[in-house]
Task: inverse folding
């Protein structure tokens, strides 16, 4: 996901973080890899790469809660 690519849930989270921090987000890239693993789980592989299970990505509230701090740090 690039800053200019603001479609979908991740884009919504970037916009919410921008409102929270009171400015536009810095340019960043975030790769989100979704895997069919058991449980509502996610891992941060590197600063710009996260791996999430389908169950986590499918749970809008849990996904937002899990991913917002990552986006906040990158923004």
Result:
């Amino acid at each position: 996901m690039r800053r200019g690519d603001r479609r979908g849930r991740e884009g919504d989270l970037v916009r919410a973080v921008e409102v929270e921090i009171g400015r536009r987000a810095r340019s960043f890239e975030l790769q989100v890899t979704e895997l069919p693993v058991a449980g509502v789980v996610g891992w941060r592989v590197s600063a710009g790469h996260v791996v999430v299970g389908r169950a986590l990505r499918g749970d809008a509230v849990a996904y937002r809660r899990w991913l917002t701090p990552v986006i906040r740090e990158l923004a």
Remarks:
- The chain is about 45% helix and 20% strand.
